[in-house]
Write a structure and sequence with these properties.
Layout: H1 2-28, H2 33-44, H3 51-54, H4 62-86, H5 90-95, H6 97-121, H7 126-137, H8 141-151, H9 157-183, H10 189-213, H11 215-224, H12 230-248, H13 254-265, H14 271-297, H15 306-332, H16 337-346, H17 352-363, H18 369-393
Length: 409
Amino acid sequence: MESDFLEFILAIVIIIVAAKLGGFISTRFNQPSVLGELLAGLVLGPTVLDMLHNWTLFFHHAETLEELLALMAELGVILLMLLAGLELHLPDLLNAGKVSALSGVLGVLVPLGLGFGAAVLFDASSQEALFLGLTLAATSVSISAQTLMELKVLRSRVGLALLGAAVFDDILVILVLSVSFVLVGDGGGISGVLLTVVNMVLYLVVASAIGFWILPWLAQRINRLPISRGTLAFVLVICLLYSYAAEIIGGMAAITGAFLAGLFLGRTPIREEIEEGISAIAYAFFVPIFFVDIGLQVNLRAISGNAWWFAAVFTLIAIISKIGGSGLGARITGFTNKEAFQLGIGMVSRGEVGLIVASFALTAGLITHENFSIAVFMVIMATLVTPPMLRAAFANQTQTDGRTKPSPQ
């Protein structure tokens, strides 16, 4: 047992160092740090080194380590979604406007539909096709926002609409993920579906009631108590309880509960204090483990033959469908062709949410390891092409940038 623990400690050390080094190198090339962390996982995983299985001098219990790291990664996912909820504001959802709403919705539906169709054409089951389509639907606006800040156009009409569209995109993807989780579960016929819908609504109503009227008051009361890091401990407990109840009561994904907890806790006057504490824990320890663990589960060498054709087509659809879907929404609501094209490009980048969807589907046995590897390949390529495409789309266009906090990664 002591040997397992020592091997676990060494694996954690290697993973965190590799993740931070990869993130640093990535930012030096004007890419988001999440890309470097993901590539670090690919290098340590079976795609290149296969650390856990090949480094037998240090690791003798690969299966045990994989299970422990997977549990740590799950905590990283939950904290990541908690932070996503904390960074959003309910009033922003109401003030985002028609362009953000329509661009966000079409930016989910078009990639989901095209991704589903492409996966089916390449002989994926309807279940796998659904979750592969969902990985296409997700957007990582932090990557685009970072690029637009550098170009000083984040507070332009396109930049503000992009931020709003990303809000609708994230919420809709999480909602569809939860509904899909219900539909591919143990079912139980029409009565079973109705029961799960009732449970979902019950959970959302109770969680919202507690979130609106109890959590803000309770958070402020606990913040005044002379307890060491009492507020941070309270937030972690609420996040984990919301996540637990989302699956046990609502039949939804645990990450949905974490997202809701962040959304409601974000309404408190101590939101910045909460976000600072959670960010320190998440980005220093758990989130790097999550991204590297994805790489540890991916074997790009296992993609062969027709699978590479699928990976190429899937990636191409990922780019075109976002530009077309989100751009169409912007064009319908009055944007010029150039502005709609710029907004569509800004929605191309995938990242945390897409990886969360793919990781969740793999863990639940809903997609194969090969298709999971294809989804990760798509995320990497979409992340790589977005910054240069945005720079080209906004060439010779600059506006005064507003005050925007950069990503903590």
